[in-house]
Design goal:
alpha/beta; 14 strands; 408 residues
Length: 408
């Protein structure tokens, strides 16, 4: 079978990349192994200068340009990581770069791209809209397209990751890889299968954007919605990448948004490394189906670390709520002096740390002489939260839990 990218292409790309991008560490992850039941190894591509594997493909493509093409300048479309990679390496090589990004791309990614000296054009609501504008600019200004995934040079550059992973951990049984347009998984599958034909390569998409899943299953599930994994939120996969994935990738799995959030939080709290939603897709897939990987040697790529700090803070708080380490209680009580103090004293005695108090009087479902008190507290874990609730009831309090699951 002849595919658009060969192992020799990837070997040549790897030689070109030597010394120009970081050979990122590949390390065992005992805490992730304990969580999933597998033997997990993590490739830390978030340690690249632009915090993403995208540097590899971008540099290989830029290095392939002729002198005349370099003089014309390049244009790229991206929701963030490819944009930064093209901007950074174009600046290094003295090439003028224009980057088209969707209007709602996280500010941290837009700012980082501009900081590398690129002209940034914000256009459209989606990556597809940005792609159309980039195509228009390429024609109008005679710019060279640097496609984020459907280009042999880009695919070859990304594939160098798998060669490094299998050198550092030759006994891997599976690679679990994010899929957006498919450049990363296509290149990694070609490289990995050339070294270990029996290795399983699994792709991961968000359930909101099942573009490759649709392509492989001849389905038409909608690709839309707000996702934490905006880096892989594409509606159309590449023609080249689809051909390679169809031939070499064993399965494409879909993962929901709460699991992506959990994966980002686990990387931060357990591995002490920052990952955006798309970059945590491999771990999210393992969390969703742990039995599939139990006892096996699994390689993950932390493929991007460009995430808005505000989103990180939100994810951490949401995970604390899911784990019931932050809980809310609603008290119905008489509106008289000392009642709040009684409740605060009791919560303190039970070891619950008060984070927020909201006192409500002016509601029709509250007695005219009464008040409603919403108290958010920090607990040690789910069992402690339940103990606190039982103790409040036992003390005669008129109290109910306000759970995030019910939205109550």
């Amino acid at each position: 079978m002849t595919l658009p990218v060969s192992p020799a292409d990837i070997a040549a790309a790897r030689h070109l990349l030597t010394g120009a991008v970081l050979r990122t560490p590949m390390l065992p992850a005992p805490r992730l192994s304990a969580l999933t039941g597998a033997h997990v190894f993590v490739k830390y591509e978030n340690l690249q200068v632009t915090a993403s594997f995208k540097e590899r493909g971008a540099l290989v493509k830029l290095a392939s340009l002729t002198a005349a093409e370099r003089a014309r300048g390049v244009v790229a479309m991206s929701a963030g990581n490819h944009a930064q990679a093209v901007a950074y390496h174009a600046a290094r090589l003295g090439i003028r770069a224009t980057i088209v990004m969707p209007k709602h791309t996280p500010i941290v990614k837009v700012a980082a791209t501009r900081a590398h000296g690129a002209r940034v054009v914000l256009h459209g609501e989606s990556v597809a809209d940005a792609s159309e504008e980039a195509d228009r600019l390429a024609q109008a200004e005679k710019l060279v397209w640097v496609h984020p995934y459907d280009d042999p040079h880009v695919i070859a550059g990304q594939g160098s990751i798998a060669f490094e992973m299998l050198e550092d951990a030759p006994d891997l049984d599976a690679l679990v890889v994010p899929i957006g347009g498919g450049g990363l998984i296509a290149g990694m599958a070609v490289a990995a299968k050339s070294v270990r034909p029996d290795i399983e390569v699994v792709g991961v998409e968000t359930t909101l954007y099942p573009a490759m899943w649709n392509a492989l299953h001849q389905q038409n599930r909608p690709c839309e919605g707000a996702t934490l994994a905006e880096g892989i939120a594409v509606r159309n996969v590449g023609l080249l990448t689809r051909e390679i994935v169809s031939a070499l990738v064993g399965d494409v799995v879909l993962v929901d948004e709460p699991t992506f959030e959990r994966a980002v939080n686990i990387f931060l709290t357990q591995q002490k490394t920052l990952s955006e939603g798309a970059g945590a897709a491999g771990l999210a897939a393992m969390l969703a189906e742990p039995e599939r990987y139990r006892g096996r040697n699994v390689g993950l790529v932390v493929s991007g670390g460009n995430i808005d700090p505000r989103i990180v803070a939100s994810i951490m708080l949401r995970e604390l709520e899911r784990e019931e380490r932050i809980v809310s209680f609603r008290f119905s009580m008489l509106d008289r002096p000392g009642e709040l103090g009684i409740i605060a004293t009791l919560l303190g005695r039970l070891g619950a740390n008060i984070l927020e108090v909201e006192h409500k009087r002016h509601f029709l479902d509250v007695h005219a002489k009464g008040a409603r008190l919403d108290v958010t507290v920090e607990t040690r874990d789910r069992a402690h939260a339940e103990d606190v609730h039982r103790a409040l009831l036992a003390d005669g309090m008129d109290v109910v839990r306000v759970d995030w699951q019910s939205g109550g």
